[in-house]
């Protein structure tokens, strides 16, 4: 990610004191003035972790295509070459980098203060400007940006990929299921068949912390952009007003269409795979799957 246009900034007045935020002042002022001059809202697309870069890129792409004023804010928590590669791949240039660091608690605390303070600063400096932050999914930034913006401005965000709810087949709640799996003391065909045909239920605390993140984000959202009708059903069941929910499709589909085509295939990178007819790629995906019993 190029940071040549970003500089370390302090927002200082009687109400706001935030340090250590990287801001492209020229880009921010340009987009704010354009929004004010044309009586438009300013979208603030927020990215935090690796999946955000890919799933949020289409918002930037189409906002720019249809001349909608938009800025990009990153929490800065995925700043290394591997986890932050999506920014480079799509040439996404943040207007704002919060530079948060640390474990979940430290990142959440820092993000809450910086996002809220930035919102207060914008509201005071540009009282006629409407800013709509759009965080994504069930990541920490989805929860904290939503909470911070609501507490600082009394306004809701737009949650992209809203209504995600952990679900599980009922038999997964059976006693000692994981122990039976580890000991191979279970009919494996029956195990898979039940996943297809058993009744499912919503799990409010799994996966951790993603389920908490998406519930909190939705609670502070004025607009809920659901990827699928089942997500809309979840939100309606939880009491969200129907007019605030829009089913917009899966955000990763646009990313697949817009992503630069790879120069090398998986077989170029890992030629040993061509020696085998049968192989499986496993996506561990999230920290909760690395609990010993679940991983085994």
Give structural notes.
- A 6-stranded mixed sheet has the order 1-2-5-4-3-6, with helices on both faces. It has a 3-stranded parallel sheet with strand order 7-10-11. A two-stranded antiparallel ribbon has the order 8-9.
- Helices cover 41% and strands 17% of the residues.
- Helix 2 links the parallel strand 3 and strand 4.
- The chain is built from 12 helices and 11 strands.
- The radius of gyration is 21 Å and the shape is globular.
- It has 296 residues and is α/β, with parallel strands linked by helices.
- About 2% of the residues have low confidence.
Beta strand count: 11
Class per helix and strand makeup = alpha/beta
Mean pLDDT across the residues is: 88
**Which percent range describes the beta-strand content?**
15-25%
Strand order of the largest sheet: 1-2-5-4-3-6
Which blocks of ≥5 consecutive residues have pLDDT under 50? 12-17
**Could you give a short account of the major beta sheet?**
6 strands, mixed
Q: How do the helices and strands follow one another from N- to C-terminus?
A: EEHEHEHEHEHEEHHEHEHEHHH
Radius of gyration: 21 Å
Q: If helices are DSSP runs of H or I spanning 4 or more residues, what is the number of helices?
A: 12
What general form does the structure show? globular
Helix content: 40-55%
Report how far apart the termini are.
Answer: 37 Å
């Amino acid at each position: 990610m190029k940071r040549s246009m970003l500089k370390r900034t302090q927002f200082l007045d009687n109400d706001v004191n935030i340090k250590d935020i990287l801001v492209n002042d020229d880009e921010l002022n340009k987009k704010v003035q354009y929004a004010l001059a044309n009586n438009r809202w300013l979208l603030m697309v927020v990215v935090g972790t690796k999946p955000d870069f890919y799933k949020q890129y289409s918002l930037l792409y189409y906002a720019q295509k249809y001349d909608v004023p938009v800025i990009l804010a990153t929490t800065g928590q995925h700043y290394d070459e591997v986890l932050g590669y999506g920014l480079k791949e799509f040439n996404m240039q943040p207007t704002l980098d919060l530079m948060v660091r640390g474990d979940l608690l430290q990142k959440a605390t820092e993000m809450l203060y910086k996002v809220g303070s930035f919102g207060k600063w914008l509201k005071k400096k540009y009282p006629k400007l409407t800013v709509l932050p759009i965080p994504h999914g069930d990541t920490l930034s989805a929860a904290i940006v939503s909470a911070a913006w609501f507490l600082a401005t009394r306004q809701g965000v737009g949650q992209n990929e809203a209504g995600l709810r952990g679900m599980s087949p009922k038999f997964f709640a059976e006693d000692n299921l994981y122990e039976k799996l580890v000991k191979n003391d279970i009919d494996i065909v029956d195990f898979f068949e039940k996943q297809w045909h058993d009744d499912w239920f919503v799990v409010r605390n799994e996966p951790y912390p993603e389920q908490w993140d998406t519930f909190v984000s939705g609670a502070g959202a004025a607009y809920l952009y659901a990827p699928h009708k089942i997500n809309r059903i979840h939100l309606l069941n939880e009491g969200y007003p129907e007019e605030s929910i829009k089913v917009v499709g899966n955000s990763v589909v646009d990313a697949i269409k817009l992503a630069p085509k790879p120069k090398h295939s998986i077989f170029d990178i890992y030629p040993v795979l061509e020696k085998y007819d049968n192989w499986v790629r496993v996506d561990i995906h999230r920290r909760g799957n690395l609990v010993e019993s679940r991983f085994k």
